[in-house]
Amino acid sequence: ATNRSLLLDRLAEHWSTAEPREKRNPVSRLDRYIFKAASIPFLLILACTTAVAWLTQVLQRLESIVDDGGSLLAFLKITALLIPSIAAVVTPVAMLAACFYVRNVLMGDSEIPVMRAAGASRVRIARSLLLLSVFGAGLVFYINVDLQPRTYKELRRTVYDVRSNIASSLVRDQ
Description:
This protein is an all-alpha fold. The chain has helices at 3-16, 29-68, 72-80, 83-108, 111-117, 122-173. It is elongated, with a radius of gyration of 24 Å. It has six helices and no strands. Helix 2 runs antiparallel to helix 4 (83-108).
């Protein structure tokens, strides 16, 4: 038997012999299983889409840094400072895609019907995805309120330093 079928058998056994509601662990195996099944695709989708969007930004900034005579270190710093603003935009899309993916996988493997037959309500099944969505919303909030303003300030300072270095080198050459 596969790991999934063993898990489904355990879930069915757990729900048929479950303790009263007030004695149950609020975070059960089912919650952890769905949370893990959704969080891994979320992180992968977030990393891939952020990387693609970051690459487009890098290619746009490459010409301006080369024209201004910036170093490779300044270029890497400027492009790394763009990641939080990109991640803030990409996170909700990655969350939605991960939820659709996990639902499709769980339905395709007939796990959701087994969970429902074992007594899990729709809200119980969706609870882990809602918790992951709250974490994603918290991440976007943190990025927008704290991280992005700090990185933007550092980005402006770095771009100013690169441009002032090229200006000072032009003055020295003449």
